[in-house]
Structure formats: C-alpha cells, structure tokens
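> forwarded from #structure-qc
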C-alpha cells in the first residue's frame, strides 16, 4: 500500500526543513506539496520575510510542488483562517490526509493547529515535538543543514544578528535566554542547503531593514556565473 499523502507546512526555515528530512527518512508519509503563506503585499514569506523567488528555489531543490496561500498585510485573523481553510479543503480533495509541522515545544501553537484541523480530514503531525532544542540545533548542523537568520526580534536579539549564518558560532553567541532554535520567536531562518535538498541554493545577504520591532536581512539569489 502507498503511504498516506501529506503536506508540509513550509516556512522557508530550518525547523520545517528538518521536519521534512525526518519524515522522509522515516518513510511513513508521501510528502506531496509544501504549503506556505506569502504576504502578497510584499511577495515574501509571511513572518520570515524571505523573497518568493527563494521560496520557489527551495521547493524546487526539495522536489516539492508549492501550495501558496496569499494573505494581505496587515492580515486580520479571520482572513488568514478563511484562506487557510480554502487551502486545506483543496488538499483534502486532492487526497491529502496529514500535515507536517516543524513546531518544537509551544503548546498553544500546537493546540491551535489541532483545533483548526479538527474535522477537516487532515491530521497534524509534529515530528520534532519536544526534542531538546540545544541537541536539536546540533543535530541540524550535523546533518549538513545550512541556514541564515532572515528575521530577528529586536526585543530579544540585536539587529546585527539578522543576516548571520546559523552555525556553531552563532549558537555560542546567543544570549542565555534565547532558545538555540529560536522557538520563542527570537529569530527566523532561511534554509539554503541540507539533506532535504537535491542541491544548495546560492544566496547573498543584502541590506538590513528594521520595521515594526524586527530586523530583516534581505537575502537574494546570487547572480548566475
């Protein structure tokens, strides 16, 4: 029998990428698409601020069709939930029965996802749930995963962290009160390489922009040589 079909909730960051890797390695699901919310006002991945062309390159390298959920900025919660509901309904019509999330330990986020998927025909799956984040961060790096910090919450980290590589040096430099995986929203990442990709992405760091209490590093595709 074929494994059940699943979507992966793809944020462009390391947690969703490593969740994809772990699920593929286990072989329990067929990942048929990557679902991403994109802020249509800017053409960027919501919250992470990653350009849509990079998102496309990531999914191409991961061998995943894209399921884009466009949302406005600012986005009222009812609009977000309506558009996500439409995407979930389409996935169910396409035979999807599960959705993979890269959440680590925030119980309220997990409960929200479970509540919104209850009764839809799609079961949420959390392959990284409650793995100790210091060890998880090390496991990500050991796997060959490479990422850059795309967004930093300036209440929790200096703006200069935006644009830094997610590596052992970064982990050593994080303040003691910052989760090494940024699970409390301290930072968000953009994955450029790893075992979930057939090939690495060539990116360069652009300007850093501060807006609404966050620092964003504009990551761009490197020019073809």
């Amino acid at each position: 029998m074929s494994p059940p079909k699943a979507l992966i909730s793809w944020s462009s960051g390391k947690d969703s990428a490593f969740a994809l890797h772990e699920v593929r390695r286990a072989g329990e699901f067929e990942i048929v698409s990557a679902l991403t919310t994109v802020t249509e006002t800017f053409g960027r991945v919501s919250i992470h601020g990653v350009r849509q062309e990079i998102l496309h390159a990531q999914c191409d390298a991961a061998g995943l069709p894209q399921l884009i959920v466009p949302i406005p900025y600012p986005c009222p919660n009812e609009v977000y939930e309506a558009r996500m509901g439409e995407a979930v309904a389409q996935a169910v019509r396409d035979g999807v029965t599960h959705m993979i999330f890269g959440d680590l330990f925030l119980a309220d986020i997990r409960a929200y996802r479970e509540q919104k998927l209850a009764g839809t025909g799609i079961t949420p799956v959390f392959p990284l749930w409650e793995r100790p984040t210091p060890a998880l961060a090390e496991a990500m790096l050991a796997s060959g995963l490479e990422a850059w910090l795309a967004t930093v919450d300036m209440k929790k980290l200096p703006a200069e962290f935006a644009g830094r590589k997610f590596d052992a040096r970064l982990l050593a430099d994080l303040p003691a009160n910052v989760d090494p995986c940024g699970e409390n929203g301290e930072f968000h990442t953009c994955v450029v390489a790893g075992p979930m990709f057939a090939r690495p992405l060539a990116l360069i760091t652009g300007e850093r922009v501060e807006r609404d209490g966050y620092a964003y590093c504009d990551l761009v595709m490197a020019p073809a040589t």
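QC bot note: The chain has two domains: 5-125, 147-221. The first strand starts at residue 5 and ends at 9.
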